[in-house]
Amino acid sequence: MKKISVDDLRIGMFVHEICGSWMDHPFWVSSFVISDRNDLITLQKSSIREVWIDPDKGRDTEPSAPVASPSLVPSLLMETIKEARAIKVATQKTSFEDELVLARGIHARSRGVIHSLLTEARMDIPVNLTTAQHLVEDICNSVLRNSEALISLLHAKTKKTYPYLHAVAVCALMIALGKQMGFDNNLLKRKR
């Protein structure tokens, strides 16, 4: 649950509770999905200033990049990820321990990205494919550098994280399978 300003509300968000008296808003219920622009404008023009949203039942606030806190992902690690993304194709093998550090950053960020994609798709909102593309490139580079690191992190799934980590695991396993079958890295260099 998140408490947000009504100005930050977007179509597709699930309002769990309206902060204020039931007489201060025109809705007959206090929990609902904002499904059209009229409901959004009506709520924003009312005297209500804050609401509680449930990101598990609807759209979340815009994700910040990356999902992991700065203390968990050191700036040197973020620079390494940016460099790997810029290269597009991993050219150098790394040890399991070195790649595990990078894989943890990808693992932490993937849940927010996949959650956002699934929510946008479920709410019939245009999906941000650029974010997904960056995540797939990071997964691909990680698997090509050392396939065991990221894949080993993806085995531990809970009921709540299963849909997100399953999507990432399938992506990583398909890349590893292609690597084992001898597909070359030129497949990853396609022009955009």
UniProtKB/TrEMBL annotation:
Residue ranges constituting the DUF3391 domain according to the UniProt record: 2-130
InterPro entries: DUF3391
Protein name as it appears in the record: DUF3391 domain-containing protein
Native organism: Ferrovum myxofaciens
